[in-house]
Structures are given as structure tokens and as C-alpha cells.
Specification:
Largest sheet: 6 strands, mixed
Strand content: 25-35%
Number of domains: 2
Oligomer: single chain
Structural class: alpha+beta
Shape: globular
CATH architecture of the largest domain: Sandwich
Helix content: 10-25%
Radius of gyration: 17 Å
Number of strands: 10
Length: 196
């Protein structure tokens, strides 16, 4: 696939098909020229109709920034499959050295927008040093909910000072979203197949 300025603009506004998006992300992972071009596009003013639709800028499943993840086998189903209402375990491997961080868990909705699932209150914040650690990496456990079928989840590891600024009574994630867009936040996404 030839990646042009126009292709990167379409990528930035979320208008590419998933397979095209994955190809662009694979090239961006290794091509500094394309990365600089995308950075310039991100800094350009946008007409409101063309503003990026997804403020989270989460990569395709299997890709990440500073992290890699997999869904651990469930108790009753094979790897990658979980029953609705069951606890799911994502094992996150740090691909770069990370300082002490906090976990933010997002799920992509059926309308392709990302929603923060956890934490939903200040007393639900979890630091990475509170997580179980397996040989392969950090273990993040949560209860799967929502419609059956393939769900995309994202793990975002956030510096505590950014989390301190979140008012959980009226959450405003724009500062964190800006840090994600700038590539300064470690994150990864996984697909989970949910059975009813």
C-alpha cells in the first residue's frame, strides 16, 4: 500500500478500513519520515467537519506503544474467548522500561467510540505495582460485559499526575487523550471474543 499525505489524513480522522489502518500503523512503527508527516498533520488546524472522530487514537489490536498484550486462556473457553460476565485476564508485557503508572481500561463501543470502563471513581484507581505479575508480564483482570461477539479493549498506562487531575464526578479525559495522540502514553489493544 502506498501511503501518501492524504492517506495519513484519512488515518488521522479514522476514515480508513481496519486492514488499511493496520497497514499504516505497521509502516508508522518503522518509518520516521511517515511519523514526522503524521506529526505535522496532527498539528494542522482542522475544519470542524474533518476533526478526528476518535479522540483516543488507539491502535489496532496487536499493536501498541511501549506495550504488548494477549488475552490469557479463560477457565472454560479457549484462548481469546471469554463468557459474558466472566473474569478476563490480559497479560501486558512492557516493551520499553516504564515508570510507576496507573491503569486505564477502555472498551470500543459498537459505534466505534472508545469509552473508559475503569477507573470510574477515584477509589478504583489501580497502580501497576498493585497488579499481579506473571512471568510474561502484568496481569490485568476485569469482568467482561456487553454484547457477545468480538470486543476491542485497550490498556493505557498513565502517569499518576495525569490521573490526579481527573475529576471523577465529571470526568474530562482530554488531557490524557492529548498525551495519547502525542505518543507519550504506553498503550495496547486486544480483541476479546465474548460468548453469551
Amino acid at each position: 500500500m502506498r501511503i501518501t499525505h492524504g492517506t495519513l489524513r484519512l488515518y488521522w480522522v479514522g476514515a480508513l478500513e481496519p486492514d488499511q489502518r493496520a497497514q499504516v500503523e505497521a509502516r508508522l512503527a518503522h518509518d520516521r519520515t511517515l511519523q514526522r508527516m503524521l506529526d505535522r498533520i496532527k498539528s494542522e488546524p482542522w475544519p470542524p467537519a474533518l476533526a478526528p472522530r476518535n479522540p483516543w487514537d488507539i491502535p489496532a489490536a496487536g499493536l501498541g506503544r511501549g506495550l504488548a498484550a494477549r488475552v490469557a486462556p479463560g477457565a472454560t473457553l479457549g484462548e481469546g474467548w471469554v463468557r459474558n460476565g466472566e473474569v478476563c485476564r490480559i497479560v501486558v508485557q512492557e516493551t520499553v522500561a516504564l515508570p510507576q503508572l496507573e491503569v486505564v481500561l477502555l472498551r470500543r463501543s459498537p459505534t466505534n467510540t472508545w469509552q473508559v470502563v475503569a477507573p470510574s471513581a477515584a477509589d478504583q484507581r489501580v497502580r501497576t505495582d498493585q497488579l499481579d505479575r506473571a512471568e510474561e508480564g502484568l496481569c490485568i483482570e476485569f469482568t467482561v460485559s456487553g454484547p457477545p461477539g468480538r470486543q476491542r479493549w485497550a490498556v493505557v498506562l498513565v502517569p499518576s499526575e495525569l490521573m490526579d487531575a481527573v475529576d471523577f464526578d465529571q470526568p474530562d479525559w482530554t488531557t490524557l487523550q492529548a498525551e495519547v495522540h502525542a505518543g507519550r502514553i504506553a498503550l495496547t489493544a486486544v480483541d476479546i471474543d465474548v460468548e453469551a
